[in-house]
Amino acid sequence: MAELPGSVGTCASFCLRLGQTIFSSASLLFMSMGVGFYNYTAFCYMVTIMGLVIPWSFTLAMVDGYSVMVKRLTRQPGILIIIVVGDWVLSILTLAAACSTASVVDVLLYSNGLYCPKVCSRYQVSAAMAFLSWFCSSATSLFNLWLIPSL
Amino acid sequence: MAELPGSVGTCASFCLRLGQTIFSSASLLFMSMGVGFYNYTAFCYMVTIMGLVIPWSFTLAMVDGYSVMVKRLTRQPGILIIIVVGDWVLSILTLAAACSTASVVDVLLYSNGLYCPKVCSRYQVSAAMAFLSWFCSSATSLFNLWLIPSL
């Protein structure tokens, strides 16, 4: 089986998963630092999705880290398909959450620009972190999808 | 070469492309029927993306229709990769536009519910059409991506 960089069990995959975990956690942190987020559906949605992405990516980061340490790739087609589908769904949801948050922040900035700069910059950082998390997630998903036909 | 339903040049692909064209046109129409859309970045973004998706999907629908009529599949790896990448990028942009529009409509409905029902339902339909267009676009992209390793 080809050792494709970025697929499950490689060092690149471990780095991508770690990045995903860190960016998702940062996004959740910046979003929920205040309590104002539950006024907007998009922000609640973002918090929900990040609450799904963090355990998923953290678990897979642990699996990758273990594979890198013991230098053994444990790839079964069934598990790989579950990982690809899970990554796919979560990356779509993350992108949706990031776009929704970014556009709501944009509306808030224009409609009430006076009080918003205090909190809107936090929401903006949160959306940016979610975009970075989406980038890592879709990259791992593509690398693993590429691997499926060779199994 | 396997005749995968949904890949370039098949009848299923023609139907998906046609659906994509119709949904994108409907989305653009519902969004730009009034002139109020340019007050919000998300709505302008949606109009821009739909202006890109419509010619792309219409052209590929024509190509698929021609292939179905003459019963000949003209698949070159280079062209297929361009189609997959183009579909991919456009489907991500469509999803982003649909989510942004939906979340902005949600904010508008809650913040000024009195005057919004007149126009907000139009924007809601536009977002729904964009979601359907995204669904068709990502389906064709996945089918064609699946075909690439067999070339």
Automatic annotation (TrEMBL), chains A, B:
Record InterPro entries: CASP_dom (IPR006702), CASPL-5 (IPR045009)
Location(s), subcellular: Cell membrane
Annotated Casparian strip membrane protein domain residues: 9-136
Membrane topology field: Multi-pass membrane protein
GO cellular component terms, semicolon-separated: plasma membrane
Keyword Transmembrane: yes
Stretches that traverse the bilayer: 37-58, 79-105, 125-148
Keyword entries, A-Z: Cell membrane, Membrane, Transmembrane, Transmembrane helix
UniProt keyword annotation of Cell membrane present: yes
Similarity-based family: Belongs to the Casparian strip membrane proteins (CASP) family.
Quaternary structure (record): Homodimer and heterodimers.
PANTHER family associated with the record: CASP-LIKE PROTEIN 5B3 (PTHR32021), CASP-LIKE PROTEIN 5C3 (PTHR32021:SF32)
Name under which the protein is recorded: CASP-like protein
Source organism of the structure: Quillaja saponaria (Soap bark tree)
